[in-house]
Design brief:
10 strands, alpha+beta, globular, 27% helix, six-stranded mixed sheet, 161 residues, Trna Endonuclease, Chain: A, domain 1, disordered N terminus
Length: 161
């Protein structure tokens, strides 16, 4: 059962970010930030890049961003703008989505640069960002060739972790 409530005149579910039209809008906006960042670096980036991945059988999986098939440098980018919970607790379900992304990265064909572009969200309670927490607790699931980049929306800067 979905629970709806109103914040500043916006109808929300209990899992929706405050001041957001929807969680999909939040994700799409964050992808736009990543798109602009990588484009400014001179990369020819497109949205919704589909690649065949799998163990024995292959099935196409759509990644948020990447280079077109004819690009010289092959890049694949997955974007996540998750935050700590409102009580500054670990968003366990969302980190399961991050683990799934790592598995997909593991299955990407050879020759691709793999980038996990995530929002910087700092926890005063834990004295670390969500990305730092993820790396500390889930490093065994992160493929060695995945670059984790943390976007700071306040400073509009990117830090490679």
């Amino acid at each position: 059962m979905k629970i709806l409530f109103y914040v500043k005149g916006i109808c929300m579910t209990n899992f929706q970010r405050v001041d957001a039209i929807s969680n999909s809008h939040v994700g799409r906006d964050f992808e736009g930030i990543a798109y602009a960042y990588f484009s400014e670096l001179g990369n020819q980036i497109i949205r919704d890049v589909s690649l065949p991945i799998g163990l024995e059988q292959k099935k196409n999986h759509r990644f948020d961003l990447g280079t077109p098939p004819y690009a010289e440098e092959k890049i694949i980018i997955e974007c996540k703008s998750h935050r700590w919970t409102s009580g500054d607790n670990v968003p366990s379900a969302k980190l399961n989505v991050w683990n799934e992304a790592m598995y997909y990265f593991h299955l990407v064909p050879a020759g691709y640069r793999k980038i996990f572009f995530i929002l910087r969200d700092y926890s005063n309670k834990r004295n670390e960002t969500l990305a730092e927490y993820y790396i500390r607790t889930y490093s065994h699931l992160i493929p060695n060739d995945v670059e984790i980049m943390e976007y700071d929306e306040v400073n509009q800067s990117v830090r490679v972790l």
